Amino acid sequence: MIKYFFSYITTINVTKKRVAIFGAGDVGISTKRALEHDMTANIQMVLFIEDDQRKVGKNIDGIKICSSSQLEVLLKQYLIDELIIATTKLASKRKNEIVDFCLDNKIEVFTVPPLKSWINGQLSTKQLQNVKIEDLLEREQIKLYNEILFKQLNNKTVLVTGAAGSIGSEIVRQLLQYKPKLIVLNDHAETPLHDLKLELEEIGCSNFKLELGDVRNDLFVERIFQEYQPHFVYHAAAYKHVPMMEDSPLEAICTNVGGTKLLADLSIKYGVERFVMISTDKAVNPTNVMGASKRIAEMYVQSLYQNQEIQFQSDLSTSRTKFITTRFGNVLGSNGSVIPRFKKQIEAGGPVTVTHPDITRYFMTIPEACQLVLEAGSMGNGGEIFVFDMGQPVKIADLARKMIKLSGLEPDDDIKIEYSGLRPGEKLYEELLNNAENTLQTYHEKILIAKTRTIEYSSLSIQIDALISPAKKQESVTLVVSAMKQLVPEFISNNSEFEKLDSPKVVTMNKVG
Q1: Which is nearest to 506 in space by CA: 287, 326, 327, 309?
Q2: At the N or C end, where does the chain have fewer CB atoms within 10 A?
Q3: Known catalytic residues?
Q4: CA 333, 334, 336 angle in degrees (round to 5)?
């Protein structure tokens, strides 16, 4: 009693913040009551805002429910200081419009966490969260065709390479719901793999084995195939940072090309049912070593499948490995990505560094990307490159400004934005399709099939072996990158020391296309 009296005395003379709740359903009502029961919450509940016109005009505990169609007018009219979004039914575009309006008018925006995270089924005001940039870039939740995936994966052995990375670890989490017999977790990074092990053990998962090692090590990788006989392979292991691979082309070839080739070859040898490779939008008209290395890996996987089909076209009794490639853009919150970096820069007081005022990128959440990987992997007949609908590209400078505002600060005044110039190999914008490609629809509206040129296996295999050999021996970087450009004629370097290797004729032709 003394504690509550003290809280009352200390807040009675403080101007109360005027609060509106968007959503007059059960979550909105629970939010209102949590605020009212928190003696330290110095707020005045002013109104509910609701999409459902059947509720508009009614009252909840004396608080009026108003129409969301008048939201901007209502927020100004009632001098709202804080808006709490207490609904999951708000479309991403509308949520962005609301948040933009609030940021421009110095109104703080909070969200209510999912019901499953409430404490003993009760919402605490301490759980209300400031809107995060990830909330505004999310899209509608994907519904998977679970029955197909369950039939394919249930009681099977699955190998995931790069299992401790952002994509690999989420693939592992999502695989669990399909009850595979065993998931073999491979990564060369010891600490992240150990962290994943602890995470899985905490949720009572025991159907997994750790395999710490490098996908470039042929004896190590073959031992995994011999020992576990995987039915499915999800290949997420790769070097992905563009500037680093411009400095380390030989490593990009050894891992992104050599590692993929080794895994793909062994998948055929050991009768793997499906091999799903994770690729990138940077493989399209690549301007950097990383993207070109992933394009070469794509080419090999496709040609290997086509060669397998030719070899066994008259032998229906021989099982074939279905090789499937999935290609998408940047994922939110992945290791080393722009959003975590901007957050650190803002917390440090700035500046926030953007490479170019006009640079744009596609974004997708990690769970969404992995759901689409599983879905594409299940629907593929073999040899396809699946391209994901990444939505609209986001201007990185606008992203930085919005993140600064979401932190309660003003761009340029409180936090400076500095432009550092494009990094080696970096594009102003990414492409999901090659100019010479077209797409086919699938039964999933967010997954398309990219039509690429057919590449003959035997000559490509020889060329790739000739590329991997000097890379392994740490021989001439110039010769290796030149060989990459011969394999991928559309690989035109940008802002890179390797621009000198591009033929002026080739550059002109590609720019026209």
Answers
A1: 287
A2: N
A3: 282
A4: 105
CA 82 to chain centre: 31
Per-residue buried b or exposed e for 240-265, using 16+ beta carbons within 10 Å of the residue's own CB: bebebbbebbbbbbbbbbbbbbbbbb
| Closest of 171, 176, 201, 174 to residue 186, by C-alpha | 171
Q: Summarize pLDDT for 315-343 with one digit per residue, the tens.
A: 665 678 999 999 888 887 776 678 889 99
Nearest to 155, CA basis, from 129, 120, 137, 182: 182
Which string of b and e fits 438-447 if b means at least 16 CB within 10 Å? eeeebebebb
Nearest to 374 by CA among 260, 236, 230: 236
354 beta partners: 419
Rounded to 5 degrees, φ, ψ at 55 are: -90, -20
Question: Under DSSP, is residue 478 helix (H, G, I), strand (E, B) or coil?
Answer: helix
Instruction: Provide the 10 A C-beta neighbour count for residue 184.
Output: 21
Give the model confidence (pLDDT) of 225-284 as tens digits: 999 999 999 999 999 999 999 999 999 999 999 999 999 999 999 999 999 999 998 998
Structure tokens at 231: 């039915």
What DSSP character marks residue 499? G
| Cα distance from N-terminal residue to C-terminal residue, the chain | 76
CA–CA dist 366, 146 (Å, integer): 19
Beta strands in 294-389 (DSSP E): 322-328, 330-332, 352-354, 360-361, 363-365, 385-388
Within 8 A by CB and 6+ apart from 171, the residues are 160, 163, 234, 236, 370, 373, 374
What tokens appear for 276 in the block?
């799903």
Backbone phi, psi, residue 483, to 5°: -65, -35
Q: How far apart are CA 363 and CA 139, in angstroms?
A: 10
Strand partners, 183: 158, 208
Tokens of 77: 């009219």
At a CB cut-off of 8 Å and minimum separation 6, what does 509 contact? none
Q: Which domains does the chain have, with CATH numbers?
A: 16-131 (3.40.50.720), 146-451 (3.40.50.720)
Report residue 417 as tokens: 């934005």
Between CA 234 and CA 239, with CA 237 as vertex, the angle to 5 degrees is 150
